[in-house]
């Protein structure tokens, strides 16, 4: 089968590799749709996972297949797998946890000491024709789902986890800094949770337009005083919660914290390439909180599926392009490295399933 594998920094190749074989407790899936994530770009650019390092929970050396946001159709199940019929449309929670460390036992598996991702650390990935995943990580998608909406469950789970950590309640206000796939996913989840007002700060006009269409108050931080804009829309108080989905440096970090009301929470949902300065006294006086949010739990994944199924969440507007598997590097990753950032939100790699279930 064909699979995009990462051989090193800026070295992704469409390789011909054997189809993965299903074993006990595992499920073979024909991938139908796979999203390109900002983290795929980072992986591609810096290849932080050594090719010769087998993840302890996976036990495979690289090069690893890329792609961790995907949905597809079950083609085969291993011994002992119940409730996942052949032919079912499924999404996969692409995380590895050991289930035994202190974090896992506390109920915070996303903070597992041995955390890893399918599509990053081995075990196959979504930028391939087939993938085999543990049945416990495979979710049969309810009626109404398509492979496209199924592929968006993963990034929306990242967003929902962050929204939950913020402690925001119905009727409250939020600021989202950065209107990319995660930022707009935050907007959708905040609205679904009953946020009264969500302000999105974003430089790209196309992304601002989409955010506005999805119900946000939008602002270009280069054109307006973001803090003033936020105070004007929140009765001078500031927002109850803010989300840093840009990770663009000191200015981004400060604007997310400054926009908060006293006692509000700012959640970092972006990778920073360098450190920032913090004035702890300011946090002391205001009881503002700053926290990070990493990945998701099984319950986040389950809840996103339920919210899409019952209509509280509609992720379809986030899809801006559809490309073929063979074009994933050129029209996907390379496009997002250049001008695509201005116009794209979510690029989906869709596969022609002629001759297979689908
Ligand atoms: Zn663990």
Determine the number of helices (DSSP H or I, runs of at least 4 residues).
12
Q: Share of helix among residues?
A: 25-40%
- Strand residues, percent: 25-35%
Number of strands: 18
Determine and state the CATH class of the largest domain.
Alpha Beta
- Span between N and C termini? 18 Å
What small molecules accompany the polymer chains?
Answer: zinc ion
Can you give a write-up of this model?
The chain has 358 residues and is α/β, with parallel strands linked by helices. It has two domains: 187 residues, Quinone Oxidoreductase, Chain A, domain 1 (Alpha-Beta Complex); 137 residues, Rossmann fold (3-Layer(aba) Sandwich). It is built from twelve helices and 18 strands. Strands 3, 5, 6, 9, 10, 17 and 18 form a seven-stranded mixed β-sheet that branches. A six-stranded parallel β-sheet has the order 13-12-11-14-15-16, with helices on both faces. It has a three-stranded antiparallel β-sheet with strand order 2-1-4, with helices on one face. The protein is globular, with a radius of gyration of 20 Å. The site of zinc ion (ZN) has 9 residues, from helix 2.
């Amino acid at each position: 089968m064909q699979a995009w594998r990462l051989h090193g920094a800026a070295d992704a190749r469409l390789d011909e590799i054997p189809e993965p074989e299903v074993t006990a407790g595992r499920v073979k899936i024909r991938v139908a749709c796979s999203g390109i994530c900002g983290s795929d770009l980072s992986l591609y650019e810096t290849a932080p996972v050594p090719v010769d390092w087998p993840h302890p929970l996976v036990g495979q050396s690289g090069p690893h297949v890329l792609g961790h946001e995907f949905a597809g159709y079950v083609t085969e199940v291993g011994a002992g797998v119940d409730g996942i019929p052949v032919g079912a449309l499924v999404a996969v929670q692409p995380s590895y946890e050991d289930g035994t460390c202190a974090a896992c036992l506390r109920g915070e598996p996303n903070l597992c000491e041995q955390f890893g991702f399918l599509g990053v650390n081995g075990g196959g990935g979504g930028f391939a024709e087939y993938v085999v995943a543990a049945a416990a990580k495979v979710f049969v998608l309810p009626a109404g789902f398509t492979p496209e909406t199924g592929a968006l469950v993963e990034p929306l789970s990242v967003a929902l986890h962050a929204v939950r950590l913020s402690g925001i309640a119905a009727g409250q206000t939020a600021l989202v800094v950065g209107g990319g796939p995660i930022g707009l996913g935050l907007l959708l989840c905040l609205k679904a949770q009953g946020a009264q007002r969500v302000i999105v700060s974003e430089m790209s006009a196309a992304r601002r337009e989409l955010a506005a269409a999805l119900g946000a108050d939008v602002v270009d931080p280069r054109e307006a005083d973001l803090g003033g804009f936020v105070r004007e829309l929140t009765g001078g108080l500031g927002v109850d919660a803010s989300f840093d989905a840009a990770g663009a440096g000191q200015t981004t970090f400060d604007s997310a914290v400054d926009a908060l009301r006293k006692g509000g929470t700012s959640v970092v949902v972006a990778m920073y390439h360098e450190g920032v300065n913090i004035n702890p006294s300011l946090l002391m006086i205001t009881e503002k909180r700053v926290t990070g949010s990493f990945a998701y739990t099984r319950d986040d994944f389950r809840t996103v599926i339920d919210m899409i199924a019952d209509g509280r969440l509609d992720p379809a507007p986030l899809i801006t392009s559809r490309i073929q598997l063979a074009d994933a590097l050129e029209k996907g990753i390379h496009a997002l490295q250049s001008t695509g950032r201005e116009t794209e939100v979510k690029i989906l790699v869709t596969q022609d399933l002629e001759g297979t279930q689908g």
